[in-house]
Amino acid sequence: MGYSLAWVGIRGISYEDAVARLALRRTGENAEYAASPVSARSLPEGWTLVVARGCDHRIIKPSALAKLSVNGEAIACSIEEHVMFSSCELWANGTSQWRVEHDAQKSIDDLSASGTLPEDFASTKAEFAEQQAAEGGKAADVDLYFEIPLTLAKSRVGFKHDEVNGVVDDEQFEVLLGSSASQQATSSRPWWQFWR
Predict the structure, then answer these.
(1) Are 89 and 75 in contact (CB under 8 A)?
(2) CB atoms closer than 10 angstroms to residue 70
(3) For 122-135, what is each residue's pLDDT tens digit?
(4) Single pTM value for the model
């Protein structure tokens, strides 16, 4: 069983403002990481982290990222380990700046990138491409290109969904609730139909 998650790190606005811009509401209840459909917490260096189940959750839709990044910035990640899909993108002041995406269904070395890419993109790509080649390239049993978008996100926000992080205590995620319509839309499809 693998992760199917979306997360967004927001900086430049308050925790409360980030929650409000996503049309969510605070409950005051804490839960373990990814134990509830949507949860959030503050991170060092002014980041607010919102994590949701489902790689295509509405918190990372372009309309949400545009709102979240007004007067700030938002780094969004989509992770679907069942098919080895990952993406990372930066929005600032309401506009998309760059996006990096890997889809193993296309090829184990698939990587698409657009926008004004960050300075560390080339070196990150080269590092994982070299490791993939050392493991046997396209014939390898591992997919290291999957890590490229996630590593770019971690270098900015300090969070990676599958790593133990001493700063992020599992039980310090606040459970957030949305409208009943958005909750029903999220829960009405099977987990494996992430594209619907």
Answers:
(1) yes
(2) 16
(3) 999 999 999 999 99
(4) 0.88
